[in-house]
Structure formats: C-alpha cells, structure tokens
Design brief:
This protein is mainly beta. It has two helices and eight strands. It has a single domain, classed as Barwin-like endoglucanases (Beta Barrel), CATH 2.40.40.20. A hairpin with a 5-residue loop joins strand 4 and strand 5.
Length: about 120
C-alpha cells in the first residue's frame, strides 16, 4: 500500500504577484524551488494563512534570486499580493519508506529569500 506523505514545504512565503490572465500555475523563484526540492510542473497544495483558502496547482520556474511567488490564472483569485502562504508537495510512499522519510522544510525570510 502507498500513502501520501509531505515531501517538501515552503513555509510562510509571501505572494509577490497575481496574474489572472495567464495559464494557471504558481511561479516560484528557482532558488526556493531548489531548496524545497520542487520540480517544474510538480503538483502542489497552497494554503493561504490570510483567508484560509486551500487549493492545488502546479509549479513553474521563476527568476532565480527574485523572491517571486506569483499565482497565475484562476489561482490569482485565491490570494492577494502580500498574503502569506504555505506551499506543500506530497509524495507516494510505502509505509516503510514513510517511516524513514525526512521532508525538505524551507523557512524563507519575509522577502522570500533563503536564510542561512
């Protein structure tokens, strides 16, 4: 049997842009993607701390070092620029694999920059 386990998380990143007239996705600074072990086109869940919204979309690469976290398409209706969100990716694992798995947790600063 396989179970869904948190693979990685960007904790408390700030929405920097919202582009309604774009094909849906979330654009994430490539530095943040690398730190959280996120791949382009990977499915993610986004949890908005400001309004309680939870939704799923997929990742596209943003400019490295920019701090960009931009909601595109319909997702742009789920948050406002400045909202704090958590971006979570999950993986399928056996129970045995899950017991050994250590998720990649990333805690950027208030400008979406990596700390330390």
């Amino acid at each position: 049997m396989f179970i869904h386990i948190m693979k990685s998380k960007l904790h408390r990143v700030r929405i920097t842009q919202a582009e309604l007239n774009y094909v849906g996705s979330v654009t994430i600074d490539e530095d943040l993607m690398d730190a959280a072990n996120l791949l382009e086109n990977e499915k993610v869940q986004i949890v908005n701390n400001n309004n309680g919204e939870r939704f799923e979309t997929y990742v596209i690469k943003g400019e490295r070092g920019s701090g960009t976290v931009c909601l595109n398409g319909a997702a742009a209706r789920r948050a406002q620029v400045g909202d704090i969100v958590i971006i979570i990716a999950y993986g399928l694992m056996t129970t045995e694999e899950a017991k050994e798995h250590k998720p990649q947790l990333v805690f950027p600063d208030h400008n979406n920059k990596l700390v330390g």
